[in-house]
Amino acid sequence: MFRFAWRGASSVFTSLARTSSRRKQGRARVSLLSLNVEQLEERSLLAVTAPAVQTIGAFDRSTGNWYLRNSNSSGAPDAASFHYGETWLPVIGDWDGNGTQTIGVVDPTGGRDRDNAVWHLRNVNTNGPASIFPFVYGLKNWVPITGDWDASGHTGIGMFDPKTAVWYLRNDPSSGKVDFAPFAYGLANWIPVAGDWDGNGTVTVGVIDPQKMTWYLRNTNNPGPADMVFTYGLPGWKPVVGDWNGDGKTDLGVFDPSGRWYLNGVANTFVYGLGSWVPVAGDWDFPKLPMAAANGAVPSGSVPTLSDAELGVAVTGALERLQEAGVSSSVLAQLRSATYVVGALPGGDLGLTSALGHEVWISPDAAGYGWSLDTSDAQFDAVGKARQGSEPARRMDLQTVLLHEMGHLIGRGDLDSHTDPTDLMADTLSTGQRRIHALDTVFRSL
Lowest-confidence range among 1-15, 77-91, 97-111, 343-357? Predict the structure, then answer.
């Protein structure tokens, strides 16, 4: 059964602040490593450095689904799994420099550009469109890699040519020229890695001999001898790296064919995901996704305050509506397992979802406008406009806000109300407006 709880403003935002502060200890720099072309079907490698603990995740290339977890242990994903990308290569980075590592995929087939790799990067860890317009960088048979090569606070991109072991590094996530003179490091068909090996804030290169699982790590982005050499893992295992202890230095890890993780410095091994999946790591900062009043908050005056019982009726009505629309039982079960909270929200926010906590907060007074609690469609016309003079015409529609936030629970991202004003996932709502179209499409399993 779904759960309800009243929370005042202080408890709601204490909870949010605690979730955020654990991930904001420093501005993270990330580096995603994949493998040589022959192993692209099987492996990929993430290198992350930041003065905060990095945790595990996995990408299923057969489905394009992501599974991110906030601790280095067995268990369920901490946010709902979500779809982003096709059978492409996963990359991770702080693309916009806001301190949060987020997802991306690189099409190694050349896609629409035929000979070049196409990058699709997103600024939140949810399903949705690319946040940066897809761009080309590198050739389609090269290996994508990412990192903060210049300690700027945002992640740049790179490519490793598996035939020549030449690196091509760029400081920004965009098409353009290299920022470092191309250089050779490693041997053909070795595995490229990157990380902040010495903890100085700059991500630098490394390579792994896959026949021996010997790691050769370098503290500068240029040719020369290795600064560190280690053997870690067994042939056929997938490397994955991150700052497992929060000391600001990138640590080694491997992922075996049974899905078991071995992280250097972490005492216990554990199973997470399937051995066929691609291991990734990052300081995941799951978004708090609000829906706001289109015209901002207004003084609440004497509008009624939403009760737990009324919220319960509205949630039941929303779930029944989704069931009637043909939404799958697995998605409905996921939505029923969430906690739905009446709690004060900032500014003009009507509802707020924490994908991490699997919780939805609903404003008690609809940002001062008051709620329309009607679960039927009798007072709305065919396009979702409330009939003039009716109670719903001067209130915010609770059904729309709940369904919108439920969309976030299954991994749907916000859409811009200016470009998609009638879509359920549009990020603002006006009084007298209901959006219930295409629920079967919005809530299709990701």
Answer: 1-15
